[in-house]
Automatic annotation (TrEMBL):
InterPro entries: Kinase-like_dom_sf, Plant_MAPKKK, Prot_kinase_dom, Protein_kinase_ATP_BS, Ser/Thr_kinase_AS
GO MF term set: ATP binding; protein serine/threonine kinase activity
Keyword ATP-binding applies: yes
A Pfam match: Pkinase
GO BP terms: signal transduction
Residue span(s) of domain Protein kinase: 5-272
Residues reported in the UniProt entry to bind ATP: 38
Keywords, ordered alphabetically: ATP-binding, Kinase, Nucleotide-binding, Serine/threonine-protein kinase, Transferase
Family the entry assigns: Belongs to the protein kinase superfamily.
Name of the molecule in the record: Mitogen-activated protein kinase kinase kinase 20-like
Length: 358
């Protein structure tokens, strides 16, 4: 398959390098697709390799950005510097951080906040299930994609990700950050061990920021954030937030990591909406269960009617072993009287007591 690259535009740049939007054209069938190509320098090679390794393991998982290709492309800058380039899925709406700028005071509508929070957790279920901690959940590392009449998000940038229980070489007591400081948890600052609870703390920060439009710990110096975390403080949650949102964020900000639960467990928090597909499946299951119950009930009534016609003296032996319990179904009056007469005749012949019928 012959493909050629066509530069479209620059998507962004930073300390890691820059990202280009590239169109790949297939000359065999005239098809094409867009890809966000990250261009990073040699000093970031190890981080890129780690990111690629994680993305390949998560390929096909929900809410995780797709990596095109199985290896890093390589080229040189116009200054002769070697570049390493992973090809990533293109998000036309950009990062969540940029997306929030489209709204007044950067505050998202509540239904969108709930949807995005649920989607991030769905992505983290896959990440944690594969034995990794993302370590840098924040608006810059969440990509937004258009979806019919709404949007969906996917987690990206796994350059800081670690295996569960791992301590990075860069962690130091005087600079105790596994990722971006304002989204870090108390325990990660205390011991530098990567745990899934770190990502859940970051989710709390993310939800708080989507509601307020303000970054966590705004106005607090970097050196003071660690001290506040270690003393038991968390970013302030405004009283004006809905009660279910406050409870969700407070759960994410639990002092003890165990109190945050798991990404899968948080999906069942009352704050989060149930996906329409899941609700529809649940409805179908309930209808199927109801139909099955009614069918079995109908069969029992038929079986009960036929057994009443075959009562013998064996019923006496059964009654000696267990107390007889009578249950009457709602039937037509004549049928009820006929059944009652049979029971009364049975009483006279067997001499065991029955509950009275009114």
């Amino acid at each position: 398959m012959q493909t050629n690259e066509e530069f479209v535009k620059l998507l962004g740049e930073g300390a890691y390098g820059f990202v280009n939007l590239v169109r790949y054209n297939n000359s065999d069938d005239n098809s094409s697709f867009l890809s966000a190509v990250k261009n990073s320098y040699q000093e970031d090679y190890a981080s890129l390799q780690r990111e690629l390794h994680v993305l390949l393991q998560l390929r096909g998982c929900p809410r995780i950005v797709t990596c095109h290709g199985d290896s890093l492309q390589q080229s040189f800058s116009r200054f002769g510097e070697k570049l390493h380039k992973p090809q990533l899925e293109y998000a036309s709406e950009g990062s969540l951080n940029a997306f929030m700028n489209n709204y007044a005071d950067r505050k998202l509508p509540e239904p969108l906040i709930k949807d995005f929070a649920r989607m991030v957790l769905e992505g983290l279920v896959s990440v944690h299930g594969h034995g990794y901690v993302h370590c840098d959940i924040k608006p810059d590392n969440i990509l937004v994609f258009p979806r019919q009449d709404s949007y969906e998000i996917k987690i990206c940038d796994f350059g800081n990700s670690l295996e569960i229980g791992e301590v990075p070489l860069c962690w130091e007591i005087n600079f105790p950050w596994l990722g971006t400081a304002i989204y870090m948890s108390p325990e990660s600052v205390r011991d530098g061990i990567a745990s899934t609870s770190l990502d859940l703390w970051s989710v709390g920060c993310l939800v708080l920021e989507m509601y307020t439009g303000v970054i966590p710990w705004k106005g607090v110096e970097l050196d003071d954030i660690a001290a506040r975390l270690l003393s038991g403080q968390a970013p302030e949650i405004p009283e004006t937030l809905p009660s279910d949102a406050k409870d969700f964020i407070q759960t994410c900000f639990s002092r003890e990591p165990e109190g945050r639960g798991s990404a899968h467990g948080l999906l069942f928090h009352p704050f989060l909406p149930r996906p329409e597909v899941e609700e529809e499946e649940e409805k179908k299951t309930e209808e199927k269960t109801t139909k099955s119950f009614l069918l079995n009930l109908f069969k029992l009534r038929i079986r009960g009617t036929s057994s009443n016609k075959k009562l013998t003296t064996d019923a006496v032996d059964v009654s000696d072993k267990k107390p007889l319990k009578l249950r009457f179904w709602k039937t037509k009056t004549t049928q009820f009287k006929r059944t009652l007469n049979k029971v009364l005749r049975l009483k006279k012949s067997t001499n065991f007591s029955l509950v009275s019928v009114h």
